[in-house]
Amino acid sequence: MSIAPTTATIRAACGITAILLAFGTTACSHTGSTQSATSARPRPSAPTAAQSASSAQGIATAGARYVNRRDVCSALDHVSLARALGIDAGHLSEPRFSDTRASSLATCDHQYGAAGMRSLISLEVMTSKEGSVKGFYEGMRGAHQRSTGVTDVPGVGQQAAAYTDPTTGPHLMAYDGNLYLSIALIPVNSAVTEQVDTQQLLIACARGVFNELRQQ
């Protein structure tokens, strides 16, 4: 099953818009390009700027400090993912990066598997320059819970949760300190992923990203 570039581009654009709106930022510099997402499937509403500002007042003392990357694909363990999903087939689109005074956002869409049988790992990483992203995580979790079942996942960052989107498959969201991430396996290719514990795969990916981006 091939993956249309427009699907990942639209999804990334929606994620970028939701996160930047949540942090109340508009002016930013970009690496790479995004396209209009007017035809995209409606996504759960993100937490508002007021909610994020309110949560920032109660910044968590636990959690590490993280620094985002322009090429956040480099934070993935491609060897382990290729072992689970098939050969490393490269980027679906170039990694994207946006930076503002308050936060930075990086996205990665990377393919695995032979042509016609590919799966996509889609990663979004947001780091705040103003403190904990706990309120943002809780807002996103609540938004998704209104439309699908969400299950807490222990042992990943300070908090994590998993859900399955009927269109794009299994997702994991998590936060630790000033970093929020969302990672998905799109699509669930039955010929490959029936033999894979997709939640454990996403958990391993998330832990790897936290380790790679943690500030020493």
Automatic annotation (TrEMBL):
Residue ranges with Low complexity bias: 35-54
Keyword Signal tagged: yes
Keyword field: Signal
Stretches the record annotates as Disordered: 32-54
Protein name: DUF3558 domain-containing protein
Annotated signal peptide: 1-27
Organism: Actinoplanes nipponensis
Lineage: Bacteria, Bacillati, Actinomycetota, Actinomycetes, Micromonosporales
